[in-house]
Amino acid sequence: MGNESLKSRPFIPGFSCLAPSIYIQEAQQTPEYVPSNYAKSTYSDTSAYTAVTTATTRRIDGSPDLILLTSWTGALPKHISKYTAAYTEMYPYSPIMVITTSIDDLTLRSTEQKTTAIAPAIGFIQGRTGRYDSKILLHAFSEGGSNKAVCLAKAYLQCTGHVIPIGAYIFDSTPGTPRFNQNVAAFRRSLPLNPIIRFFGMIFGFLVLSLTWTIFCVFIGYENNTITKTRRALNDESLWPLKGVPRTYVFSEADDLIWWKDVEEHAEMSAQDLGVTSLVVRYKKSGHCGHVRENEAYYWSAVRQTWEGRDVEVGGGIVDARRDNWRGEWCNMI
Description:
Elements: H1 2-8, E1 16-19, E2 22-25, E3 33-35, E4 40-43, E5 48-51, E6 57-59, E7 66-73, H2 77-90, E8 96-101, H3 103-107, H4 111-117, H5 120-128, E9 136-141, H6 142-160, E10 166-172, H7 180-190, H8 195-220, H9 226-233, E11 247-252, H10 260-274, E12 277-283, H11 296-308, E13 317-320
């Protein structure tokens, strides 16, 4: 029954199913390691990078030990695969883990339930990041992806007693703040294409969201909303390595689900309160989680530079990719 259930689930080409909603692709090439006292400079198309670690070994190529994608709510495999294909081409030595999210995760399941469901990922992560200097590139999409990333961080801490070893963060279309209209729009996008199901689903969803919104605002409190708690948790030093770990926020002024100023505000708070180096990449016309389509080269250049930025001593601050004429290099902090 269990195996049949896993086989019936949507799959991403080239990935195996570790557990419900958890998919794995092993590295496409075998990475090489060298002793830690060996230092070597490598160059990319954007910057020079010198890596020296204190662990027993390190990668020659400097690629992530694991690329972790937490997808947006209801993301289809064919859409996720566009990102995994780009990552595979960019970092063929790195395994990729994709953790998907459903509308039930955000609306019906408790944090404890989500943490338990995500536990199978912990063993795989430990197997790929067992060395002292191991680092993960985390790419979280939308509210569903950032919430699932927080659940994973909590599960990892509970199981290992250590924070999950993230080396760089990419936040795509997240984090926002609770806004009723955006919640309704997000629910509409998660519904099947069948017009009858969408019609009755929207009626039911509107009633449930209205009731939920009223309960949280009146009885439980706005600050206890799942989106609000996730937003705070992304800057929780007990869950993540933060200082000295670069992060990039990618968002759009045309996003109808997440208000771009909410994302930008989080980047500013990260820089000011925690000393995090934040690159903000603001698009003008792209839709929610569709920024790569507006300028693909710009998008992936930001991703690559974020990963390489973990080895650049720039201190905390904000880099506005458009205002500072960012061209694949870290600009002066403001």
